[in-house]
């Protein structure tokens, strides 16, 4: 159906005469009359009755008018939408990230981002690093936040601060010194580990293999906060990434090392370069990278003096509660 005919029909219905509608639409009366006749032929019924010099809607014409107004209104909204998309600051951004990144980073970043880019709607998918690969390759998400799992020829990466592997335990436990513990001395403690879907676990396992270390595994879990709760209760030492928030718990945090080198993994924002990123997605990546450089690591090792302060402040905080 020709949109010009619909606009002509609405104009004539609003103004009541062909002459006035012609002036508004800047077309001749004969051309306007032909458009009305063509629309009536297409519909198969009369739209107007002529009484004197004025045109009045028929019953069917009145019913069609509301639909025509709705269609033209949607066309106007679509035109505005297209203009917003051209500017590159409007659209739906599909993002995949691990649960601890969503909780610790995105939960605080997204409200800030929404203030600057109100026309971008972020759709989150919870997915661990390896699970993000098929999502990116199939185009189900635009970008993924993950640990870099080696070179993928189809992926483009934006480097972020490294994610350290940390040990979290009850503050009374004597674990390491100066905020660090070697993985060899750590292995004898009952360990609370994330399952193998987490990059921090795979890195921990790889280091144990290289060092010929047999860790004492007490529990494996997909829920990081389960491990933190058990560690706080003195039930073992939780092995966690530094991107995880631990401020709800009274814990001593130390960095895990091997041969005096900290265990850490490269953290990246990735996308499939075979699919061009929308402009708003590029803006999002830049803003998120700047924010993550500002806040990472979320959890930092606690040296001896700081640990004592953390215990006192944690105790006073619980007293107030």
Automatic annotation (TrEMBL):
<protein>
    <recommendedName>
        <fullName>HTH lysR-type domain-containing protein</fullName>
    </recommendedName>
</protein>
<dbReference type="InterPro" id="IPR005119">
    <property type="entry name" value="LysR_subst-bd"/>
</dbReference>
<keyword id="KW-0805">Transcription regulation</keyword>
<dbReference type="Pfam" id="PF00126">
    <property type="entry name" value="HTH_1"/>
</dbReference>
<dbReference type="InterPro" id="IPR036388">
    <property type="entry name" value="WH-like_DNA-bd_sf"/>
</dbReference>
<dbReference type="InterPro" id="IPR000847">
    <property type="entry name" value="LysR_HTH_N"/>
</dbReference>
<dbReference type="Pfam" id="PF03466">
    <property type="entry name" value="LysR_substrate"/>
</dbReference>
<keyword id="KW-0804">Transcription</keyword>
<dbReference type="InterPro" id="IPR036390">
    <property type="entry name" value="WH_DNA-bd_sf"/>
</dbReference>
<comment type="function">
    <text>NodD regulates the expression of the nodABCFE genes which encode other nodulation proteins. NodD is also a negative regulator of its own expression. Binds flavonoids as inducers.</text>
</comment>
<dbReference type="GO" id="GO:0003677">
    <property type="term" value="F:DNA binding"/>
</dbReference>
<comment type="similarity">
    <text>Belongs to the LysR transcriptional regulatory family.</text>
</comment>
<dbReference type="InterPro" id="IPR050950">
    <property type="entry name" value="HTH-type_LysR_regulators"/>
</dbReference>
<feature type="domain" description="HTH lysR-type">
    <location>
        <begin position="1"/>
        <end position="58"/>
    </location>
</feature>
<dbReference type="GO" id="GO:0003700">
    <property type="term" value="F:DNA-binding transcription factor activity"/>
</dbReference>
<keyword id="KW-0238">DNA-binding</keyword>
<dbReference type="GO" id="GO:0005829">
    <property type="term" value="C:cytosol"/>
</dbReference>
